[in-house]
Amino acid sequence: ITDTILPELETWQSRPLSKCYAFLFVDCMYVTIRDGYEAKGYAVYTILGYTLQGDKEILGLWLNESESKNRWMQIFDELKARGVEDVFFLSMDGVSGLEAGAKAIFPTVVVQRCIVHLVRNSLRYVPSKDYKAFTASLKKLYGAPSLKACQSQLESFRQQWSKYPGAIDVWVRNFKHVEQLFDYGSAIRKIMYTTNAVESVHASFRKVTKKGAFPQENALLKVLYLRVKELHAKWAEGHIQNWSLVMNQLLLLDSLKNRVSHYISIS
C-alpha cells in the first residue's frame, strides 16, 4: 500500500527548482537501515532553501553510507542540473571540503560556518565548570556590534582563555567566518550565522524515524517524504519573519543588488 507514494516521491526528487535561492542550509543526520542481519547507519543529506519570496523549501533528500565532500559535490551538481543558477549564502557545519565543493558549482556563493557548531566544538576543550564564563566571552566575540569590536574582543578572548589552547584554536582557524558576518546587515546575519533552520527539519524527521531500523532505503525515503509534505503545508501558511528587512539589506549590497534585481524580475 505504501508503495503507491513512490511515483510521487520520484517526481518530487527530480522536480525543477527555483533559479535562485537567497540562503541554503545543508546538514546530515544518521538513520539505521537493516542490511540482511546487519544494521547500518546511513547519512540522510538534507538541503533547506529560502527563496527570494521568503518561502522555505526542502530541495531534496539523498542517502549515502556516510557523509563526504564528494557526495555533497554530486548533490550541488544535481541542483544545478535541476535549474538552480545562483545561491547567495550557504550555511554549513564544517564538513571538510564542503566549502570548496560548493564553490566549484556555485563560484559566487558565500559559505558560512555555523557559529553554534563552532561554540560546541570549542567547548570540547573546556571543563564544564568554565562553560558559563567561556560562552559568555564567546558571545561578546561573535555578537560584537562591529567588526573592529569583534577583532578587539578576539585578542581579549585569547588572553583570558590562554589555558585552553585547543578551544582558542577553533576560533582562530575559523575567524574569517566570524569576520565575514559583519559584511552584512543584522537581519542577514541572523539567518546565515547558524544551521539551526535545517537542524529543526532533522528534529522533525527524528520524530518519525526514532522507533527502529528501516528494512530498506525506499522505506526510509517514503516516511521522510511524507514528513516533508507536512512541513511544506505548514510553511505555506506564512513567510520567514522580517523577510522584507532581509530583502532591503540584500538590495543595499553592491555585490548582490544586481543579482537580486535580476532574479526578482524573472520570478
What can you tell me about this protein's structure?
The protein is an alpha/beta fold. The chain has two domains: 2-114 and 195-266, Nucleotidyltransferase, domain 5 (2-Layer Sandwich); 117-180. It has helices at residues 6-13, 69-81, 98-105, 115-123, 131-142, 147-160, 165-173, 175-179, 186-192, 196-209, 217-235, 243-251, 257-266, and strands spanning 20-35, 38-51, 56-64, 86-92, 110-113. The protein has a five-stranded mixed β-sheet with strand order 3-2-1-4-5, with helices on both faces. A hairpin with a 2-residue loop joins strand 1 and strand 2. It is globular, with a radius of gyration of 20 Å. The model has no long low-confidence stretch (mean pLDDT 92).
What's the layout of helices and strands?
Layout: H1 6-13, E1 20-35, E2 38-51, E3 56-64, H2 69-81, E4 86-92, H3 98-105, E5 110-113, H4 115-123, H5 131-142, H6 147-160, H7 165-173, H8 175-179, H9 186-192, H10 196-209, H11 217-235, H12 243-251, H13 257-266
Parallel strand pairs: 1-4, 4-5
Antiparallel strand pairs: 1-2, 2-3
Largest sheet, strands/sense/barrel: 5 strands, mixed
The helix content is 40-55%
- Radius of gyration, in Å, reads 20 Å
Reading side by side through the largest sheet, how are the strands ordered? 3-2-1-4-5
Share of β-strand residues: 15-25%
CATH topology of the largest domain: Nucleotidyltransferase, domain 5
- The CATH H-level superfamily of the largest domain is Ribonuclease H-like superfamily/Ribonuclease H
Q: Output the helix-strand order.
A: HEEEHEHEHHHHHHHHHH
Alpha carbon gap, first and last residue: 38 Å
Number of strands: 5
Number of helices: 13
Q: What is the level-2 CATH architecture name of the largest domain?
A: 2-Layer Sandwich
Q: Tell me the structural class.
A: alpha/beta
